[in-house]
Write a structure and sequence with these properties.
This protein is α/β, with parallel strands linked by helices and about 375 residues long. It is about 35% helix and about 10% strand. Bound molecules: magnesium ion. The site of magnesium ion has 7 residues, from loops.
């Protein structure tokens, strides 16, 4: 059965990494479950073809080359905007077909739900929409059966053809593993809820390449105001309660909400966990890849890691931006995507500032180019 990796590992018993003053999460920082952040440097390699003796070299081995690769997920390893707008459109169309509620109403109400939950990917959307509750007279059984499940099915069907890695990503990660084994760990750091991030990486077929996934807390389960009853299908509820990790055997770290990018504390925690936060020289041996200049690149520069800008991930399609903006405020969009000045009018104007690059060490024309920036040693 998939499991959430326990902190009670041998690695977890090590003392937390030393920290610097000023902005550091601190050695006494508690994880959301109240346990101290622990070193991952002693984590066992997960790839069968890996030479176990080499372990995770990193700082502990006193190397001079690349010690760690950390990558963002959305619009860095896959086209999140295309996937999500397509899947949400399919969901809205199906819900409209069932209820007759205008798509514009569904989209408008979705903005409120996503804002309230602080995530454009809040997965229990339909049952939280006021027009749905009114249409079914708050009959949660009918809502779950007659509209939530069909809406979810439409979303999933659309995701089948759109939730795909950028074409060169699987090949690049396979090449990365072939060349470096687990001598250079690979970490995913995302502002998506942990469950959603792992679901996406699993669907993308990429989860197997990662040693660790760092995400934000799992989404809250919606309940009825009257009886306090859970508004989720029992089977899906069980998956969430079990905190399914999709068969992932690496490390899972749920960061507090306030560790969200562009704050540096998420990446700082990764550096500390891998004991790569000691000096500027050591931090520069960490490669950080992200698509969002305002968030990813800026925080990488602040921490002094080698920062690679996934330039190809910036949204330039006006139509996709407008679809996104129909059901999410601009602040939420910026959590998931860097948006170029693609839209005219109010929304576009407010997005312009998002694309000022913060001088990455290098810009990537495709994901695979990150391999050129790794240093053996
Ligand atoms: Mg991104």
């Amino acid at each position: 059965m998939p499991r959430k990796v326990s902190e009670k590992s041998a690695a977890a018993k090590k003392k937390p990494a030393k920290t610097k003053a000023g902005g550091s999460p601190g050695a006494k920082e508690k994880s959301p479950v109240g346990r101290p952040v622990a070193s991952l440097a002693a984590q066992r390699p997960m790839f069968p073809e890996h030479d176990a003796e080499s372990g995770i070299a990193g700082h502990a081995a006193g190397g001079t080359g690349t010690a760690l690769v950390v990558t963002d997920v959305d619009n860095t390893v896959f086209d999140w905007v295309r996937y999500y707008t397509t899947a949400m459109q399919a969901l809205f169309d199906r819900v409209h077909g069932i209820t007759g509620i205008p798509v514009a109403t569904l989209a408008s109400e979705s903005r409120d739900v996503f804002t309230r939950h602080g995530s454009i990917e809040y997965p229990f959307l339909i049952q939280e929409l006021p027009s749905i509750a009114a249409h079914f007279d708050d009959d949660i059984d009918r809502i779950l059966c007659e509209v939530v499940e069909p809406g979810r099915a439409a979303f999933m069907q659309a995701a089948e053809s759109t939730l795909l890695p950028y074409p060169d990503v699987p090949e690049a990660l396979a090449a990365f593993r072939k060349k470096f084994g687990t001598r250079i760990p690979l970490v995913a750091l995302t502002d998506a809820p942990r469950y959603v991030a792992m679901w996406k990486l699993s669907k993308l077929g990429l989860l197997k390449y990662f040693d660790a996934v760092y995400g934000l807390p799992d989404p809250r389960i919606p309940t009825c105001g009257k009886a306090g009853r859970v508004k989720v299908d029992p089977e899906i509820l069980l998956k969430h309660l079990q905190q399914s990790s999709f068969g992932f055997s690496g490390k899972i770290r749920i960061l507090p909400d306030e560790y969200e990018k562009p704050g540096t504390r998420g990446l700082k925690t990764v550096l500390m966990d891998y004991e790569l936060d000691e000096t500027p020289e050591i931090r520069h041996r960490v490669v950080w890849i992200g698509d969002n200049p305002r968030k990813d690149i800026a925080l990488g520069r602040k921490l002094g890691v080698t920062t690679l800008w996934a330039k190809y991930g910036v949204v330039t399609d006006k139509r996709l931006f407008e679809l996104l903006h129909a059901f999410s405020p601009i602040e939420n969009i910026h959590k998931n995507a860097a948006v170029e000045a693609v839209a005219s009018g109010g929304a576009g104007q407010s997005s312009t500032a998002a694309v000022q690059p913060h001088e990455p060490d290098a810009a990537l024309g495709s994901f695979a180019e990150f391999l050129q920036h790794l240093v053996a040693g």
